[in-house]
Amino acid sequence: MKMTREQKYRLLRQAEPGELMHLAEKVDLCDWRQSYHIQPHTGLLNDPNGFAYFNGEYHLFYQWFPLGTDHGMKYWYHVVSSDLAHWKDAGIGLEPGDSYDSHGAYSGSAIVKDDRLHLMYTGNTRDSDWIRHPYQCLAIMDKDGTITKHEQAVITDIPAGYTDHFRDPKVWQDGDSYLSVIGAQRSDLTGAAVLYRSNDLINWTFEGELKTSLPSFGYMWECPDYFELDGTGVLLLCPQGLEPEGDRFRNIYQSGYLLGSPLNTATREFNHGEFIELDRGFDFYAPQTTEGPDGTRLLVGWMGLPDLEYPTDDNGWAHCLTLPRELSIRNGRLIQRPAAGLAGLRGEERSFSTLLNDETRRFEGAEGSSYELSFTIEQFDSSGTFGIEFRTSESERTVLSYEAGSGTVTLDRSNSGAPASPAYGTTRSCTLENETDRKSLEFRLFVDVSSVEIFVGDGEEVFTARIFPDPSSTGISFFANGGSAAFEASFWPYHKGAIPQERPADIYN
Ligand code: FRU
Known about the structure:
Main location: cytoplasm
Catalytic activity: Hydrolysis of terminal non-reducing beta-D-fructofuranoside residues in beta-D-fructofuranosides
Bound molecules: beta-D-fructofuranose
Number of helices: 3
CATH architecture of the largest domain: 5 Propeller
Function: Enables the bacterium to metabolize sucrose as a sole carbon source.
Helix content: under 10%
Pathway: Glycan biosynthesis; sucrose metabolism
InterPro entries: ConA-like_dom_sf, GH32_Enzymes, Glyco_hydro_32, Glyco_hydro_32_AS, Glyco_hydro_32_C, Glyco_hydro_32_N, Glyco_hydro_beta-prop_sf, Suc6P_hydrolase
């Protein structure tokens, strides 16, 4: 999408002359640029927004502050894919600066109506006392990619009983009308999600709060999402302010789901089970889902968290998105698998098969910093701990282990390289369910230059983490401690070129 001179001027209006190019040059010097994860050309990326299948392609936007790694004036940046693996730049999606989004085009979602993609988002504004005034806004994208903002906000008032933390509309169709769930904070400083209804996406009526059994669960719920999967109601939410409980809630903020009977949209009652974290790693937040053309429910998350510093900040960029995941439900839990299209990134397979007994063995012929690796452990002794070390060198390693007796999986990034948010610890663990009958366990790792996503046991659990190793840390080894196990592994190098590597000239030149 070509930008007009005026748009370009407005993008740069806070930048000193040459600042954006100067920032881009710093980014180019960074050793931790990803090779197949969606990342910003400069500045900071946060939440995925407006994820939708429209006009034969997947459209995905993300929160973007172009000029640095602070949470500054947020834009929506737009990328497009036909297979959820290869992405093309589509330029700036939403630019802030109108009266209803003067201080940022904050998070929101998309829905197709009348052959156009409707983007519903939060316009953040501040008054002269820097008090926040959120508006819920609408923009419409035509089939040719032109995005036009609706001339005024579609929800202007905050209902009584809520603070100005009122944002992140997620919209879906319900019969002949549309529903939108919005993240909120009650006046008593507890988190909630509220529901609005509309016939045309323009005129909205406040219906009231979603009635869950979590009346006091953190001080704010960000980025709610509701959908139904195989007759089950699923509510995603990002509660802020939970205290750690054992292995749970170890990150600065949480994101997880509630499964229940379908939401009663008339009474807004949602009867559900416990809150379960979507991801057991270090860097995951603000996920958003959409439905693919074949009905598959797809999820993308932000591989980062608010209010933390990351090692790439010094190079003028921060964060990336997770790989898309396909959702299903099994045994009362959400199962997450990497999107099928990712297999299109695979290079030539190398395989490995061995029995290890209290020893470590290198995966000869397989190394690198961008690859997919799947391995299965079988015939394991219940006394042992088994796993993999990757991105290894003399001094660095990232370690994934499975303690067979307890069924505990642990990701350890204590020696992964430059430290990332060390105040929140360097290991994450979870204990798998249904362990008694387990005879084998599969892990699928997606390693990129500065991240890893680990799908455990066919998507029962996922660990997502940024890691910042030296480029020379490329080795892979398997280990068995305190017992023996059989290992079968397959490795596929991933080629560059899945994501845009060139900066869009109309923004950066
Ligand atoms: C979540 C969030 C959203 C908000 C957006 C602003 O990370 O705080 O609640 O809309 O980021 O960038």
